[in-house]
Amino acid sequence: MKYTPPQLLLSDKLLRLRVDPNRAVADFVNILLGSAQCRMQIEDAATGSSRSMKNISQEKLRQIVIPVPPLPEQRKIAAILSSVDDTIEKTQAVIDELQAVKKAMMQELLTRGIPGRHTSFKQTPIGHVPETWAVVPLGEVLSGLDAGWSPQCESEPPQEGRWGVLKVSAVTSGVFLPQESKALPEGLVPRIEIEVHAGDVLLARANGVLSLVGRTAYVSSTRPKLMLSDKLLRLRFEERKANSLYIHFCLQFENIRQQLVDRTGGSQMRNISQAALREVLVPVPSLQEQTMIADAIHSVLKEEEHEVSYQRELARTKTALLSLLLTGEIRVTLDPEPCP
Fold it and tell me: What is the pTM of this model?
């Protein structure tokens, strides 16, 4: 831990590992324990019948096998990977700030409209909106819903030119992440009618985590040959009634998202039916004002998408570096010792 406030105690579900400074560097050991190599050993050694409550004994933890390079190499490896972590943290701070700006813009624009355009407002089941706006069930502006397909896929993302199936995690962050996908096995015929295209609005219809059900993402751009999974829906809109990007922002707005959460069913795997989705109320200004609102919020979303993509790339870089450095495939160059 880099910093902790005083007077904090460990709970019975935590262990403090004290590292022998003559054999290992604490930062290096911390990085090791988060690596795929160690995580696999820890998961194999964990016991417990419940998926939500596993545990590992101190005896089993002591038996985890780790590589132990010389102390100077440990320090150098820890410094390299810590610098990547620092950049990831700084990027997350930028993302958090952009999300706060986007949330404030949505609060203003989705309840009061374009500044200076409206002077009178009305109370509706979803809160105050301008007097001239309609509040209608989502089904009234939809032209259709497309469900996906989830064949048994390979674990890795598809290579260029191959077909793949999106995972639900491609959508649940609120930013479209095409890299969150799995390769379609060579022997299966792709379903081109559920290929995802730029301009699509995708919705997570099912998830084990309630707060992620009904999350949407707007596809600003995407690589070809990616299909919807069966836990995703594509929303298609009547072009004369609704701007797809505007409706995406509406469905992210907390006043409206709560309707989605309230309409979910299921116990372990929560889901929302197409019928329930169509009942969700949304505010509908003129098509011109929808476009103006969507464009304003989208300017912030594009920045957020860029930062999220950069952060994901950093995480992949860290994973690759971790594997290369911990296996010794790449040896670090040590700093020269200072002259006496």
Answer: 0.79
